[in-house]
């Protein structure tokens, strides 16, 4: 696991900014210095460069969750999206405040699974499969284990905690599914939500046949395979869904010796056609290990791909889909918003604080701590 220190790892120059951007950047640096050790800014890889340059620590959602849990900072400003800030609030102490620069920065995938929908699905799947709820199961009974992707609301993490389940990220999904199947029993199964593609790709990589995976879509009549191992929620990432096998074929036609690496939120045909797949941290390491002069197509968010290209001058790195847009919700974290919350912290306010209700924190923390105890 690597921790990137952005100001050392990335060379940002004043020439890349206009006068207004430069003034904002300089003011953020002044405010950071004034707040000192009371402040920790966490940045996700998908953020724009003008945010990353101010992040004290940079990572994927798994790494940032760990960093939040270990931090002693009084103010944790999370330059990511809402579900990440919620997880940070759950894992930190009551004396720490987690702040999101723009409260509108959500996640369309997370919004595809609501608690009431999951509760309905849970009851229906238990009924159709005859599996037991881990929270009430007797010794030896086969169970249905709920696994929620980090990209989900806190109340769904709480649901998992209360029903013997766990949280996963793209970094540790295989280890998490192994944990879940061990607890489910030989005839048990997993309910994986909200991203169907990560669940399908991870399960298939582990040797689970596709015919033993069923997709669950709320509001529809859903059929469950008789010997199902994974029930996949219907959700997806709007960015990663845009990558296709045709794009891979076109890249290889133009670059016969090129390599393709994609994120496991991509559809399974794309993942299987690529040379490698993995989390944002995996993609960073994979790119760094390529020989000088290599041509690499990357299937993930465009800000990260552009940053990789800037960092590796001896490699030729491009986005698999040249017209793909940035993650629209990550892009809501504008430097002006970051400057504003820091200004208000200096003035004694605690703006845009993300607070998870105590009634939700207990189960959610249990599910998150189970995740953090498992190696990737």
Account of the protein in words:
The chain has 376 residues and is of the alpha/beta class. The protein folds into three domains: 6-107 and 329-357, 3-Layer(aba) Sandwich (Rossmann fold); 110-236; 240-319, Rossmann fold, CATH 3.40.50. It is 41% helix and 14% strand. It has helices at 6-9, 19-35, 49-52, 61-70, 82-91, 115-129, 154-162, 173-184, 196-205, 245-254, 268-273, 280-288, 302-311, 335-346, 358-372, and strands at residues 39-44, 57-59, 75-79, 97-99, 144-149, 166-168, 189-193, 213-216, 230-233, 259-262, 276-277, 295-299, 316-319. The protein has a five-stranded parallel sheet, with helices on both faces. A four-stranded parallel sheet has the order 2-1-3-4, covered by helices on one side. The chain has a four-stranded parallel sheet with strand order 11-10-12-13, with helices on both faces. Strand 12, helix 13 and strand 13 form a beta-alpha-beta unit. Helix 4 (61-70) packs parallel to helix 5 (82-91). The protein is globular and about 65 Å long.
As a whole number of angstroms, the C-alpha radius of gyration is 21 Å
Going by CATH, the homologous superfamily of the largest domain would be NadA-like
Named at the architecture level, the CATH assignment of the largest domain is 3-Layer(aba) Sandwich
Q: What is the average per-residue confidence, as pLDDT, rounded to a whole number? A: 91
Give the termini separation: 9 Å
Give the number of DSSP strands.
13
């Amino acid at each position: 696991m690597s921790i990137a220190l952005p100001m050392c790892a990335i060379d940002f120059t004043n020439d890349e900014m206009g006068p207004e951007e430069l003034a904002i950047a300089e003011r953020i640096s002044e405010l950071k210095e004034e707040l000192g050790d009371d402040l920790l800014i966490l940045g996700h890889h998908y953020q724009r460069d003008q945010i990353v340059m101010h992040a004290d620590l940079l990572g994927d959602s798994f790494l940032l969750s760990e960093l939040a849990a270990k931090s002693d900072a009084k103010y944790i400003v999370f330059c990511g999206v809402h579900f990440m800030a919620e997880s940070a609030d759950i894992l930190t102490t009551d004396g720490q405040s987690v702040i999101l620069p723009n409260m509108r920065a959500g996640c369309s995938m997370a919004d595809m699974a609501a608690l009431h929908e999951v509760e309905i699905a849970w009851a229906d799947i238990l009924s159709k499969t005859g599996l037991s709820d881990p929270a009430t199961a007797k010794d030896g009974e086969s169970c249905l284990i709920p696994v929620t992707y980090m990209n989900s609301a806190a109340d769904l993490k709480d649901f998992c905690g209360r029903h013997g389940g766990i949280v996963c990220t793209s970094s540790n999904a295989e280890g998490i599914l192994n944990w879940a199947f061990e607890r489910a029993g030989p005839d048990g199964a997993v309910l994986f939500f909200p991203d169907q593609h990560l669940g399908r790709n991870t399960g298939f990589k582990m040797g689970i046949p596709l015919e033993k995976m069923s997709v669950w879509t709320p509001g529809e009549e859903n059929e469950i395979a008789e010997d199902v191992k994974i029930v996949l929620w219907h959700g997806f990432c709007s960015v990663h869904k845009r990558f296709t096998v045709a794009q891979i074929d076109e890249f290889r036609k133009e670059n016969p010796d090129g390599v393709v690496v994609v994120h496991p939120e991509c559809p399974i045909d794309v993942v299987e056609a690529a040379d490698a797949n993995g989390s944002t941290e995996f993609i960073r390491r994979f790119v760094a290990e390529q020989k000088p002069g290599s041509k690499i197509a990357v299937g993930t968010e465009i800000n990260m791909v552009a940053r990789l290209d800037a960092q590796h001058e001896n490699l030729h790195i491009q986005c698999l889909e040249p017209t793909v847009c940035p993650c629209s919700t990550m892009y809501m974290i504008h430097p002006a918003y970051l400057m504003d919350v820091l200004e208000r912290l200096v003035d004694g306010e605690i703006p845009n604080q993300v607070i998870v209700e105590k009634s939700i924190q207990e189960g959610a923390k249990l599910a998150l701590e189970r995740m953090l105890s498992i190696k990737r």
